[in-house]
Design a protein that fits this description.
Its cofactor is Mg(2+). The chain has 494 residues and is an all-alpha fold. It has 19 helices and no strands.
């Protein structure tokens, strides 16, 4: 639920009037319908880009799905993947630091780095403390190394960039003829952290100007042209890895220096992940259709496909299917909650539902208005299903998940109270509440509930305390959402 700050509260159209239902939601119906319930993907004889659209004029989601030739079985593909992984592992033992940087970057962008965690950890040690400097006079290598290390939580100085500046401290003019290096530097500069000062801001401004100039001249060829255009819109560190893999698998095949082993592995991995995603999406679509019809709250959003796409971006690894499903189902449930508090329920109905959520007991359904009873029942039963999905030694996790979900209802209640009272919060008040009501801290914890042994009780305690990294992620999500909502509102008024 988006609340308003003191600056714009007076113009907010979303005020809940106690004693009467608020304006009904005006959300468009899902364009997907039962598409993924009945969808049977085609099985062509060649690799290709496979696009799933609910209608010809609605490019909501685009998936890159590589189909292998000869309609191989999944068993054959998995055996082939293991064979190819063995070949790739030998690549880590040979070559220079520059080659290790390139290999690591390629694996991550192809979305297959999860198969080589130990090898990548060893490569990082080599990259952090290189025993030779070969390749470090190459701006592309220097910039890519910096980005990769920072992505893995290792701070590295930007001093190495001084080698590419002239006596006046400006970047050398010769760099303007190297778009690949400029792109790598542009992406690396977006890994800036507090303490870097204005230096990396200057790098972003310089490289962006140079890249835009090159684009305007039409001098770039595919696939670099597409990569530059994409980065200017969304720099690589801020782009969803799932989408980057979708694009890069096809682009890598066009690169003259591509490795056939890596390309085949990436294509097979894309196909296997596609098969998993379609199975999960079918199961979720069936679950959601039953839930949405049973709960019968037509004023709420019907967006399970989009929710699942988000969950894949948050939890991309194949082995974390359970976490992905828990995340998506909870996201779907909290959408009902959000839309009910935000655009439909009276203040008293909000209070009743909040009270019932704190009781977390079937008997509390009696205090709810008739139209909200099934939502409450289904919420409790879904969390019971989650508990049944957990192993005996994992069931302690449910208490954390229930607690953060109960808190979510309290955050929505506070926003409803502010709207009803026409309270104009300060920006600080608005930020404190809306960051938590964004649902991202809650969803982070629910996702952890589905992970394996790597997540301990200590991790849940840490996450429940909403550490800075969780809060920062929620702030970004909330502010981007508010900016988007504002722009949509402006367009609607225009």
């Amino acid at each position: 639920m988006a609340v308003t700050s003191a600056d714009d509260a007076a113009s907010s159209p979303r005020m809940i009037n106690a004693g009467s239902a608020a304006t009904r939601g005006a959300f468009a119906a899902s364009e997907w319908g039962g598409f993924f319930i009945t969808h049977d993907p085609p099985r062509p004889q060649a690799w290709h880009t496979y696009i799933l659209l609910p209608s010809a004029d609605l490019p909501l989601l685009v998936f890159h799905f590589a189909q292998p030739p000869l309609q191989r079985s999944e068993e054959w593909m998995r055996e082939r993947v293991e064979e190819l992984k063995g070949r790739v592992r030998t690549m880590f033992s040979d070559g220079s630091v520059a080659e290790a940087v390139t290999l690591m970057d390629t694996l991550e962008r192809l979305g297959v780095d999860g198969h080589f965690r130990e090898e990548i950890d060893s490569a990082i040690s080599r990259i952090v403390h290189p025993d030779e400097s070969a390749g470090f006079d190459d701006l592309h290598v220097v910039a890519t190394r910096s980005r990769l290390l920072r992505q893995h939580g290792i701070w590295v100085s930007t001093d190495a960039l001084d080698n590419f500046r002239d006596g006046m401290g400006n970047f050398k003019a010769s760099l303007s003829s190297d778009p690949r290096a400029l792109l790598s530097l542009y992406n690396a500069a977006h890994m800036a952290v507090p303490g870097d000062g204005p230096a990396l801001d200057d790098v972003i401004n310089f490289t962006r100007h140079q890249l835009e100039t090159i684009v305007a001249k039409g001098e770039l060829r595919s696939p670099l042209a597409e990569q530059v255009a994409r980065a200017l819109d969304h720099p690589l560190p801020r782009f969803t890895r799932l989408l980057e893999t979708m694009y890069y698998v096809g682009e890598y095949a066009q690169e003259e220096t591509h490795d056939n082993t890596l390309l085949e592995l990436a294509r097979l991995n894309s196909h296997l992940m596609r098969s998993l995603h379609l199975r999960e999406l079918k199961a979720l679509s069936l679950w959601w259709r039953d839930l949405y019809d049973t709960v019968n709250l037509p004023y709420t959003r019907d967006r399970m496909v989009e929710v699942y796409f988000w969950s894949c971006g948050m939890i991309p690894e194949e082995e974390h299917s359970r976490a992905r499903l828990m995340f998506a189902k909870t996201f779907g449930l909290v959408t009902f909650l959000d839309d009910t508090y935000d655009v439909h329920a009276t203040l008293e109905e909000c209070r009743s539902f909040t009270k019932a959520m704190q009781r977390w007991d079937d008997s509390a359904v009696s205090i709810l208005p008739e139209y909200l009873r099934m939502l409450y029942i289904k919420t409790l039963s879904t969390f019971k299903d989650f508990e049944n999905m957990l192993k005996p030694h994992e069931k302690y996790r449910m208490s954390y998940a229930k607690k953060v979900y109960q808190l979510q209802a309290e955050y929505y209640m506070q926003e409803a109270q502010w709207s009803n009272d026409k309270h104009q919060p300060t920006f600080k008040e608005h930020e404190e509440l809306s960051v938590m009501s964004s649902g991202l801290p809650m969803l982070n914890l629910v996702a952890l509930m589905g992970y394996g042994a790597i997540v301990t009780k200590k991790v849940f305690e840490w996450t429940c305390a909403v550490p800075d990294v969780v809060r920062a992620g929620a702030q970004i999500g909330r502010f981007l959402n508010d900016i988007s909502s504002y722009k949509l509102g402006e367009e609607g008024r225009g």
